[in-house]
Amino acid sequence: MIKLLVVDDSALMRRQLLAVFQAEGDFDIRQARNGDEAVRENREFQPDVVTLDINMPEMDGLTALSLIMAERPVAVVMVSSLTEQGALVTFESLNLGAVDYVAKPGGTISLSIERVAAELVAKVRTAARVRPKGRTSKGSNAAAVVRRMQEERRKVTAASAALIAARGGGDGLVVIGASTGGPRALEIVLSGLPADFPWPVVVAQHMPAAFTRAFAERLDQCCALSVVEAGSAVPIAAGQVYIGKGGADTLLANRAGKLTVLPAPENSQYLWHPSVELLGRSALQHCEPARIMAVLLTGMGYDGSDAFTEIRKRGGRTIAESEESAVVYGMPAELVNKGGASVVLAAEKVAAQLTVWVGR
Question: What is the pLDDT of residue 132?
Fold first, then answer.
């Protein structure tokens, strides 16, 4: 049995969530009406997973999450409204230690939770297998990890740095794929790239459409490189980061002789979107494989592992995030198992490796 604590101030939402998980037959469930009750139940019930609402009276979800992760770390799945403000708060919760999130399809009080029931159950089951990390444990605080990663970046030799400055042009491409745990891992990786990083970076992070713009804006504030959502067809430029638009797939194409990133309707042949696999294959179609660097970060499933393995076989360089730092060691593990990883690194070491590679 999976011990689950459902936290929501709406009695209707609690009943809906209770029905979803009771129907599964293998959940031992308790409920809490606010953050204060959630902290107490986490201590007394000791659940394997918590689903946590954000907007609650007496104690909101972020405050509760902070106390939970400090007192008794547990796998937490945030249940957030599908709005830009909800996205910003959700990203903050991921930095505080939440494993994943599910967007309520109908706002703060959703009358159509069945639309995301399968996704919610899948994410809770995945979270039950995650080893939670408290705020004070190594790798759990994004700001602290970024500081450590910046120290790694300073270890890059002066010779490599000189080569980067001399090269200057965007004659290569970095593609990055991520899913569960990806927002925090991407913040760590992208924050570590220097302002003179000469290659464009295209990211496919599994995320709903309402979240990717806010995510790109958040990353833009903490990165030396410019970060934008790839919401329309745009020629890629050196030293720019493009976040694939949610609710679509992200492809590379040749438009008027220029390598262009563009959103495309979700391809139903693939399970996850934006599809890392499609991004990797479109990169192979339009770029010299030896000039591609591909990074597969944390996430459940296998999205991107085949395409990134092909990139390596054809002369490109690939990085799989290590089990040490991955929230879910699924996608990167698949890349390793298929022989597609040039190196396996913790998230805080990825930027330094990319910087060295691009300078060679």
Answer: 74
Q: What is the CATH number of the domain that holds 39?
A: 3.40.50.2300
Looking at residue 115, what DSSP letter applies? G
Residue 80 CB neighbours (<10 A): 28
The catalytically annotated residue of 179, 191, 275, 325 is 179
Burial 45-77 (b: 16+ CB within 10 A, else e): bebbbbbbbbbbeeebbbbbbbbbbeeebbbbb
* Structural domain that includes position 310: 142-359
Which residue among 80, 93, 206, 249 is the active-site one?
Answer: 206
Sequence-separated (6 or more) residues with CB below 8 Å from residue 96 = 62, 65, 66, 69, 135
Q: Same domain, yes or no, for 94 and 182? A: no
**Cα–Cα separations (whole angstroms), residue 265 to 137, 208, 269, 290, 331:** 40, 13, 12, 29, 23
> CATH number, domain at 169?
3.40.50.180
Residue type at 222 in one-letter notation: C
DSSP codes joined into one string, 254-276: EETTEEEEEEEPPPTTSSSSS-H
> Do 99 and 177 fall within a single domain?
no
Show which of 71, 106, 128 is a domain's final residue. 128
Catalytic residue among 275, 303, 305, 342: 303
Of the pLDDT bands very low, low, confident and very high (cuts 50, 70, 90), residue 148 is low
Told to judge if 303 belongs to the known catalytic residues of this protein, a careful annotator would answer: yes
pLDDT at 151: 53
* Domain identity same for 298 and 190: yes
Distance of alpha carbon 39 from alpha carbon 51, whole angstroms: 12
For residue range 162-203, list pLDDT tens digits in order: 334 333 345 899 999 999 999 999 999 999 999 999 999 999
Give yes or no: residues 200 and 84 share one domain: no
**342 and 197 share a domain?**
yes
Question: CA-CA distance, 357 to 201, in Å (whole number)?
Answer: 14
